[in-house]
Design brief:
About 30% of the residues lie in helices and about 20% in strands. The chain contains 14 helices and 20 strands. α3 packs across α5 and α6 packs across α7. Bound molecules: flavin-adenine dinucleotide (FAD).
Length: about 475
């Protein structure tokens, strides 16, 4: 089925998250006729909003890293620049068994940029801070992941333990790795932390690398930004851009099979090799036929669609619980923009974001004295503590955790509206690709290019560019015909 009469090669994009939407845009810009197929009834994937107190709050991605500038450039193209907002500079906290402490500012995944700063000493004690402070004087090691950026798959845990010691690893790096990457440092490759391996290779020191990354993010105008009204504005803008470009969008359609055959259009001028792909749904019904496919789905789905025999790394479950609370004592933002929770603190949640403190535009959109706080559950290797709980039980747990983290009692009766949103999180990319798609199929997603929108947006554009190149007639000779 050809959804439009543009006449270029017909490309199916499977998955309507940010990766799929960005790829669809690039493909249409490159002259392809695009049909995007999304399983859910709504677009956006892990960018999703929920209405609380009449305003939209993100229950998936809530911000984007400004590094690289790709997301801001996309927003500029989509006419969204004037909606970009920056978080309040209130700092964030770590809650441990010993209480709550402000997080040292300007580090990279918890690696301190200024090891002797008071905030670092408060976490590590003087001895621990000194151990980190002397790290730039240690011998440069050649075996480490940074030294072989792109090569050896050393874990962040091993590298930090070796260079900075157990205390910095356990008290600073571990809670941040768990909060941001949902995994322990010993399971996280250094490569998965954007820029760290390269900065370490350049400087030979983790502390100097953290400083370089901090300076780069300051130069780029701060580490994260968002869109007024929530990140779903990006999804809406991408969807209307796709429609303006004549792309077709089919939601509520789950692709369960892709197979390759021979195109009846093989001889048509401008058509690629003659390979034709058929997408089918769970009932075996043909969804569409096309010249090429871009899979922007989770790794588990891509592996199944490509009939990959090696099982992908396991996904794990997390859950976000967002509460709109009438509690004026939170006006003081007692934990700044939010807090990460170390294991052993007696709190089930792994992180809390004080959304109305972090994003002033959102505070202005709810009644005075009302606060929206968002808790995340599900540490690596364990089911989220909210899994299997009834709504009443989940709400009670969220209120207890929020009270402990914020230091302000929050009773379920003070909660005006709330919502819970389960998610599945896949493994970040490793140093080598885990799936090898056949010619005519490309892959995009955070498991390909790295976690977060700042990695996903350029990754999806690159995947679309590779597919366009494959589809150009000059490349026909290199494409095996089926
Ligand atoms: C709770 C949470 C908070 C986050 N916070 C941030 C943040 O603040 N900043 C940031 O940059 N990143 C954040 N992220 C990560 C970010 O959301 C993701 O990296 C990004 O959204 C991934 O986009 P994607 O399009 O690759 O995948 P997804 O958004 O997962 O999209 C994949 C799409 O494929 C669809 N699909 C699956 N199977 C099929 C099928 N068989 N047929 C058709 N369609 C199918 C799915 O329904 C989905 O829409 C967060 C993630 C979570 C879960």
């Amino acid at each position: 089925m050809h959804a439009s009469t543009r006449g270029g090669p017909h490309v199916a994009v499977v998955g309507g998250g940010v990766s799929g939407l960005v790829a669809a845009r690039e493909l249409a810009r490159g002259g392809a006729t695009v049909t995007l197929v999304e399983r859910d009834t709504t677009l956006g994937g892990r960018v999703r909003g929920a209405k609380l107190e009449g305003a939209t709050f993100d229950v998936g991605a809530e911000a984007f890293a400004t590094r690289g500038g790709a997301v801001a450039a996309l927003m500029a193209d989509l006419g969204l620049s004037d909606r970009i907002v920056h978080p309040a500079q209130l700092g964030s906290w770590v809650v441990t068994a010993n209480g709550a402490l402000p997080l040292p500012p300007g580090g990279a995944v918890g690696i301190p940029a200024r090891p002797l700063a008071a905030a670092v000493r408060a976490h590590l004690g003087l001895r621990g801070a000194l151990r980190v402070a002397v790290e730039p004087l240690l011998r440069r090691d050649v075996a480490g992941a940074g030294a072989s950026a792109g090569g050896t798959a050393e874990t962040l845990g091993a590298l930090v333990r070796r260079r900075l010691g157990d205390r910095a690893l356990d008290r600073l790096v571990r809670p941040i790795a768990l909060g941001v990457y949902s995994t322990v440092p010993d399971r996280l490759e250094v490569q998965a932390v954007p820029g760290l391996a390269d900065a370490y290779a350049r400087t030979g020191s983790l502390v100097r690398a953290a400083r370089q990354l901090r300076d780069a993010s300051v130069a780029a105008g701060g580490a994260v930004a968002a869109l007024a009204g929530g990140m779903t504005a990006l999804v809406d803008a991408l969807a209307s851009d796709a429609e303006d470009r004549g792309s077709a969008i089919r939601t509520g359609t789950r692709v369960v099979e892709i197979t390759r055959g021979v195109s009846e259009h093989a001889a048509a001028p401008g058509r690629p090799s003659g390979a034709q792909w058929t997408l089918r749904d769970g009932a075996g019904k043909t969804i569409l036929r096309c010249d090429a496919v871009l899979l922007a789905v989770p790794e588990s789905v891509a592996a199944a669609l490509l009939a990959e025999r090696t099982p992908p790394p396991p996904e794990h479950d997390i859950e976000v619980v967002a509460l709109a609370v009438a509690e004026p004592r939170l006006d003081a933002a007692p934990r700044g923009t939010g807090a990460l929770v170390a294991e052993g603190a007696g709190i089930a949640a792994k992180a809390l974001t004080h959304a109305t403190a972090k994003w002033p535009d959102r505070a202005a959109s709810v009644p005075a004295g009302t606060h929206v706080i968002r808790l995340s559950y599900g540490r690596a290797g364990a089911a989220p503590e909210t899994a299997g709980l009834s709504d009443d039980e989940a709400l009670a747990l969220a209120c207890r955790d929020a009270s402990l983290i914020l230091g302000v009692p929050i009773a379920p009766a003070a909660v005006r509206e709330w919502t819970r949103q389960p998610w599945k999180v896949g493994a970040p990319p490793g140093s080598a690709p885990r799936l090898a798609p056949p010619p005519g199929v490309e892959l995009a997603g955070d498991w390909v290019s790295g976690t977060g929108l700042a990695s996903v947006v350029p990754g999806a554009r690159a995947a679309a560019a590779r597919l366009l190149e494959h589809l150009t007639p000059t490349n026909e000779s290199s494409v095996p015909s089926a």
